[in-house]
Amino acid sequence: LRANNMMAWKGCILLVTLFCLGVVSARSFDLPYDPKAILALAASQLQREIAANKNNTYPTCTSPSGNDGMMTWTNTGASSWTSGFYPGLLWAMYNYSIYDPSLFKNKLDVDFDWKTAAQNSTKGITSQENNTGTHDVGFMVFYSFGHGYEITKDPDYLKVILKTAESLATRFNPIVGCIRSWPGYHFPVIVDNMLNLELLFWAAEAGGNKTFYDMAVSHADKTRINHIRKAGNTWHLVDYDPDTGAILSVCNCPQGLNQVNATWGRGQAWAVYGFTIAYRYTKLSRFLDTAILTADWWLDNIPADNVPYWDFAAPHNQARDTSAAAVVASALVELAGYVGGTKGAAYLKAGLATIASLAGPDYIASPAKTEGILLHGTGTWPNSCVDVSIIYGDYYFIEAVLKTVWGA
């Protein structure tokens, strides 16, 4: 592999798995989709956004624009929880353009300057290193500066990452054993927060405070015990007493259906990937066991095309959520390498099938209709980013595809 960075390392997991399972020869392997076609579409769509984005803002989801029905990006500032995904995508494109420069020409057949675009977009998020008001700085900073540092080794990027980890750590309550998610409630913790732990794990290894690791492990343990139901599905929110650590309430709300038998689609996806990441950094078997438990529940309950409804209990005339499917696709490809054997092969097959479904005509974007990459994502039903392209869905989809093409 040519690229010595985070995404290349993740891609190695797939290749090792494939070789160990005897699925591929030493020269090549077949995928049930065309990765170059997907990446070419992504490059074209992102180049269009780069050209239009003169104010260095951050796409979040698409909405209708004008009378032609074209779905264009709605953009936000750096403080939005989704701000890091767009520069993360630009870093991914830059990284892959080094590996395969022939794919990424602009309309004049000139090499496109992905690096400058990624640097400019990343720079705009610098102020968030001091943001102690949200748990989402992991998404915001690690997906921008983190990817940028892994590729460039820019020491200024490392400083921002470590400072951001310090900011996130201020939200940790040692009595509860978790990082606080939102304001309101008493001490709310949402399952989404599992993905922000990577910032702490990584920072502890990269020169940050070693207690970051302990905080992340504690949070993952509490989530494992209190968010994961016996069958393997998840609660979205657990509210704790900040003074005693006692659980005050659990629910599938506010982003899932507020029913005991309901499971929010993307919440389940966050759990699958979050515990896969936790195992990557810790090698603690209990986190691998939880990743397996949540992945198995997902696979046992997912529709035939591998794309969930926004909630697993939602009526089937309501919206799907491709962003949840993209998260799980990336998780399964990685999880397969940790599990190995027949079960690992099944995870790999499911991950590739999910990518193939997302790349199919029901879910992949038409540039004439939307500025995004994936269709039919759902942010928060029924009021926000429903049945549209969503930047984090695009991010995890491209991440999953890239995991399967490094070295291919």
Descriptive overview:
The protein is mainly alpha-helical and 408 residues long. It contains 13 helices and 9 strands. The strands form 4 sheets. A 3-stranded antiparallel β-sheet has the order 5-6-7, with no helix packed on it. Strands 1-2 form a two-stranded antiparallel sheet. It has a two-stranded antiparallel ribbon with strand order 3-4. Strand 3 and strand 4 form a beta hairpin. Helix 1 crosses helix 12. The longest helix is centred in the N-terminal third of the chain and has 18 residues. The radius of gyration is 20 Å and the shape is globular. The N terminus is likely disordered.
| Helix vs. strand class | mainly alpha
Q: Bin the strand percentage.
A: 5-15%
Kindly state the percentage of residues in helix. 40-55%
How are the strands of the biggest sheet laid out side by side?
Answer: 5-6-7
Low-pLDDT runs of 5+ residues are 1-28
Task: Name the average pLDDT.
Answer: 91
Sheet having the most strands: 3 strands, antiparallel
User: What is the 3D form?
Assistant: globular
- Alpha plus pi helix count: 13
Number of strands: 9
Through-space gap between termini = 9 Å
Radius of gyration: 20 Å
The run of helices and strands is HHEEHHHHEEEHHEEHHHHEEH
